[in-house]
Amino acid sequence: MTQKSNSSAGGTILVVDDQRLVCEGIRGMLEAVGFSVLTAESGRTGMTLFRRHASAIRAVLLDLRLPGENTSEVFDAMRHLRPDVPIILITGTPEEMAREELARPGLSGFLQKPFDVATAIRIIRATLQMAPPARDTEGSPAA
Length: 143
Hints:
alpha/beta; Rossmann fold; disordered N terminus
């Protein structure tokens, strides 16, 4: 399932996780603090949304394990399109093991499942504050 909320005060966050309840929970949490949210339950759907909304997306929350898919390839494809977009890894795997599994430069943050609302919001906001200004797919500042 793919959904976009109508709240946009904090910008748009793309959540890619194969578990619908995780997507729904994160969406509700982020909408409550002013973000617009796109959700995808597969890497393929996540990439479709990422391409379609590349200039609007401020950050991506990407699950480490997407059944039948290679998360590293999804990560690399997103980085290729928007090297500036922060990508935060979400997983139940301990951080050190997860970072080894997705050994990619440019990983912006990490959220260990299960996480509480305050921790998730703090990490997302801190990551966004450290990110360079958003660029569109042509390299110009995003509108």
